[in-house]
């Protein structure tokens, strides 16, 4: 029986060590091309800047809430880069940097968290599902959508993002099982950032790693150092190819860390030590990739400067977007509840209209 | 053509599959077996596993997977095997099925049908007989319909599958095997319209699904008591057809709502509340309800005590303060 | 002592933990963090991880595990982090929590409390603001209570924990931070009793949870219009206190029910239906409802248009057909 | 890392081959004592007879519905035998033979399926939870109850029975995870009878075996030949001991087969071949154990006769019980909804009383 081939590598796949030197736990994966790595770097710089900016604007009351991606940039950027244009991404509330890397505009990304509307972009045009808050529910949508594409003969893939905590939900289990049974072209990408709000991974699961779940569904699985962008990209590229080639879904777990509190509304000092956070700050994925690319002569100082400058321009556009107060039409509440408003909604709309005119 | 409600539903699925290749039927045991109630009988054989297939046993999975399939351009018709076994899918139904169009401001629509065999009267053991309509009707974004006749089973299911909105389609189990003349060309009222099944001038009985037949029986029995009973079959529980119902109650001045579900917080409360608001000055008596008891659905041997029947409905009609009314000429 | 509703709930949990070592508090983030609303703040530190602890992130798991713990002699008090995140537990709540006593003919009782922060008004993003009471109140076997004041938060939570029946305990989020004088000795009405929060003779406003404060505000504002408004705070949504409500409406002859949840099939419909049935001949006008709109809960910046407010309630009171009434002496 | 020790044996544990000869894939488990095996045999004879009788009475309309245990007697009897008096069993609708083996009376076992009441026995006295129909939900109760006993320092264990189909439900996943995280003394015993009503295992899961799920929760797991009573007992004894010793939960999958249709209301010819069923009839667990015990000189013909005779007496008591029509009080509908009937229920009770008197 070849079941053991479904098991992940015994230790997380790693191409680059914390200090930026080469590590050689490649797990048989090929190294992504230098140009892609540079692109990943560029987007991580952009994403980091975006994240810092959004956090700052939250303090000024410009966003209702912001769950930071700090520390998870390698995962989120790799998830976006692993996708082709026709592929779908299923993000959570935490994955704003993935959306930025996918090319969405700041205003589109932040509409939900700003409180203007439930989703700021067109999922059909962007092939990005609405950021999902009911945990794990989107993994089923991803499996279903992947299966739909497979049925139509499109060779597109869906990547579902999910956190460590959300893997405890029943929907995650059902999604893995449906995907495996239907051999749907979907990659489940768990960002194990070691916390579900305040609950540490040790209280979430007794498994050595979440990637060990795959074998129970007959699904290939892998674990990877989530702060090593090279490794994450290598593993995700391979997983996406596996799915695209009709070989079935893949479960990938990235070991990473949530550097900031759960959201701006959270106080992480209540439940974890500053030292732990400090230790993980050292493992910064952006620094690591930068050192690696410089070591490999793939990145020039001038490029570093240019990317940083571009990120500043981008940050300015984030500020501009959030400082403008968009007009919201209260009567839009009645749009899109049904294809056509029911008679009851028409009456309620008329009443609100009268109220607004009074 | 004489056919049962189960067969009428089967015909509706077949015609929908024929007309639109985006339609897919899936769920637990709906494939080779044809469903535990045989509603999908022979469909896999005739249309192929590609169009009608079994899934793993997980209701949230079925509904969530269907959401993804609908996002990908299909029109899934899924079956929850029994009412209470749709509860595992409650989060997917309320937080996604009902809201996806709204969440995406119309960019994504969700044309899917969730078929749920519901209610009792078939001697089913616990958890197999829930009347769960109130959970769905209170959820904006869902349409909820339930046929009381085999013809409506055909018509409404065709409409539901064609609807651009998600529809919770409640099938009254106890009517699956009742035979009736059915035409497989749609001719009925629009999906969101109630119909007057029997005209009468003294009191309006408002019923739906499994209770339509009981209401009609009651109307017959009521003749002996001298009451001329009008029967309205709601068909669409959400949205509600105020026009048809209100017109009837304004005419009769009295109304009774009947359903199997527990009364407290049941769907009938909504009917009472809105009918009362709209017909207050035409009402001779408060609108009353005949419903299931406010207890968990009983074991088979006691279920008849739970369910509204002709006697209980007649007793309730009798309580409509007839004495207070000026005697109508001829009555 | 002046305290917020969140603090009053915290005190109730502490006192219950002190009084009965079978009481356990668990759920997502209720331990070290003290809950996202700090309702369990400091309890783990003071009572130990043994009495108040975090669980894996799975609501059906939390409730189902609690059912087992209760079968094993404990009295679990579990938290669902937000209203819509209780939906994954819907099957466990409806098919087991509500029914276990009944299924076992009293051999097993299920003294557990499911705390659910609910409703809106706090600028929460989607899925964080549902008013889900109607789903629970329609389910026989559950008790459903919701405090409108900090004092009731303390009293009702103590009662709920001591209740031999399972209680769905709905905490109005928007009231968590309102300060009030509270005494931590229980002195209030029984858990299943409504209370008249303000006496008035012209119209009865029936409210609960987050809307009690709004109803009281409305009553003040109504003075300018010449209406003397009585405010009833239901406290217990299931069972319903007919006696208190009916007595009030019979006195005033007019009533308005207020809640945040969508109106259609909402809890208010039940209130209208039963009050109308019991007070029909005392009513000068139909009992009206002021509720949330029948749409998915809106994004934060639009939520104020969704929610009942003083103006909408006053407008509704104005529609109670005052002109049709014989002018009351002195009015 | 010792994660691989959590994996099940590569092939199902087996002590006795189909023809009753010794097999030696013991997986390191010790052989149960002869007296226990004889007891298992006795109870399997009793259970088989009970099952046949219940099926027959169903045809006569004495039961509302009956899901047969035929073919699964080794699993169900072993599950009951593995438990001590203070241990709890969490059965499904299919597990009537386990209840019989646990010592419940026919009337108690069949109350639910006869339609008289939801549960015919007192769960607290029998330490048997009500037979559960909402699939997989009882696995969480078992985990919670096991944890409750652990907290009170009782060294009791809970065994949760579940079918292959029900493992696809989210609750199963959540139960495994809670049990593993809390190290609750519970054994999850999957009877993989290859069908969920009409759906074959191949459509239920892409896993080589369900036992492979354990490792994903950090839980010990095992697979066993479910038609080999010796093996099932050996594995369950060990699993129960593991749980009782505070070493955490265990997942056990037994490979077996549902010989009859799903219930009397089902027509299995619609979805499976007669040959397949015939093949599995050959693998009859009762025959196999009988041959084994005879080979080992642990069972005398006189005993076989005596057990068969006892089973006949038992069958007679099943018939007697089901032929008597118990009095059911309609007013009992209002009992046990709440500890005390609410005022509303008192009114409804009075109305029903008046109706019954009319
Ligand atoms: C079904 C559900 N339950 C609870 C919540 C509340 N909640 C929001 S985020 C969160 C923690 C999620 O942790 P994890 O999955 O690890 O993702 P992360 O936030 O770390 O990215 C919780 C409990 C929710 N959104 N949905
Ligand atoms: C939540 C839920 N969904 C659906 C059903 C209907 N149903 C009853 S038994 C069954 C098949 C169960 O198969 P399995 O778990 O393999 O157990 P077996 O019947 O084979 O013992 C189904 C779908 C149910 N009882 N509960
Ligand atoms: Mg996390
Ligand atoms: Mg099975």
UniProtKB/TrEMBL annotation, chains A, D:
UniProt keyword terms in alphabetical order: Oxidoreductase, Pyruvate, Thiamine pyrophosphate
Pfam assignment, any one: E1_dh
Domain of life per record: Bacteria
Single GO term (MF): oxidoreductase activity, acting on the aldehyde or oxo group of donors, disulfide as acceptor
Gene3D superfamilies registered for this protein in UniProt: 3.40.50.970
UniProt keyword annotation of Oxidoreductase present: yes
CDD domains xrefs: TPP_E1_PDC_ADC_BCADC
Protein's UniProt name: Pyruvate dehydrogenase E1 component subunit alpha
Domain Dehydrogenase E1 component span(s) in chain numbering: 41-309
Keyword Oxidoreductase on entry: yes
NCBIfam families recorded: PDH_E1_alph_x (TIGR03181)
GO annotation, biological process: branched-chain amino acid catabolic process
Cofactors required: thiamine diphosphate
Automatic annotation (TrEMBL), chains B, C:
Keywords: Oxidoreductase, Pyruvate, Thiamine pyrophosphate
CDD domains membership: TPP_PYR_E1-PDHc-beta_like (cd07036)
Keyword Membrane carried by entry: no
Residue ranges annotated for the Transketolase-like pyrimidine-binding domain, each copy included: 3-178
Domain of life the protein comes from: Bacteria
One Gene Ontology MF term: magnesium ion binding
Cofactor field: thiamine diphosphate
InterPro entries, alphabetized: THDP-binding (IPR029061), Transketo_C/PFOR_II (IPR009014), Transketolase-like_Pyr-bd (IPR005475), Transketolase_C (IPR033248)
Protein name: Pyruvate dehydrogenase E1 component subunit beta
